[in-house]
Amino acid sequence: MNTDTIRTIVGIIGNVISFCLFLSPMPTFRKIWKAKTVMQFKPDPYVVTALNCAVWVFYGMPFVHPDSLLVVTINGIGLFIEFLYIMKKLSIFLGVEIILFAILVFVTLTFLHGTKNRSMLVGILAVIMNVAMYASPLTVMRRVISTKSVKFMPFYLSLANFCNGGIWFAYAFLKFDPYILVINYIHSYPMVWERYLEQFSSSFMQNITKPPTGTMKESQMKLNFKETRTQSKVIDRGSSKRFPSFITKPRFQVSESARYFFNSSLK
User: Fold this and answer.
1) What are the coiled-coil residue ranges (predicted)?
2) pTM for the whole thing?
3) Which single residue of 51, 99, 112, 207 could bond 117 by disulfide (Cβ 3.0 to 4.6 Å)?
4) pLDDT tens, residue by residue, 127-136
5) Is 108:164 a contact under the CB 8 Å cutoff?
C-alpha cells in the first residue's frame, strides 16, 4: 500500500470525525430555532467557523493547492452546516463574510501566480484563523474556575477534537503540508489544557468536600474538650447560673459548735 492510498484512507477517517464535530452544535441550533432568539448563546464561533471553512475550501482547490480534495469536501460540508445558522439569524455577518472571501479570491487569483505562492498566502490566513478558532475553547477555563464545575467541558467532545487533530496531523505528515500540519499540532494543545483543568478542578472540589481526618471518637473527644474549656471560662467569669447547684455550692455544711472547736484548737 503506497503513501497516497494511506493518506486517502486517513483523510476519509478525518472527514468522518470532522463531520460529527460539525453536527455537535445541532442541539443548540434546535433550541435557537424553537425560541426564535439566540438566548445566551454567542454567535461568534459559528461566524468564525464559517469563514474558516470557506478559506480552507479555497485552499484545497487545484489551482491553489493540488491534491487536497478531502480538505475541500469536509470544509464544504462544514461551510454548509454553519450557513444554516448564519443565513437565518445573522444575515449581516454572512454578507460581510462573503465580501471578505471575495476579496481574498480576487487578490489571490489576480496578483499571485503559481500554486506555491497562492497556497502560501491562503495557508497562512487559514492558520491564523484556525489558531483563533481553536483557542476559543480556552475561554471556558474561566467559567470552570469561577463555577468550580467541569460540566462546560464535555469529555467526549474534547476527546473527539483531540482525535480529529491527530488524524489530520497524520494526513498532513504523509504528504508534507506545513499549514495543515501546524494547525492540527496547535489544535491538540487546547484539548490537553482542558483535560488538565478538569483534573485540577475535580481534585480541588474533592479537597473542599473531604470530611475531617480522624475517627468519630477523636472528633467527639475534641468537641468535649472544647465544651469543657468553654465551661471553665464561664465559671472564671463568675457566671454560675448556668451550672447545677452541686458545682457552685458546697456539698456539706459545718455547724457552729464544730467551727468554734476548730478555731479554739488553733489558739
Assistant:
1) none
2) 0.66
3) 112
4) 998 887 766 6
5) no
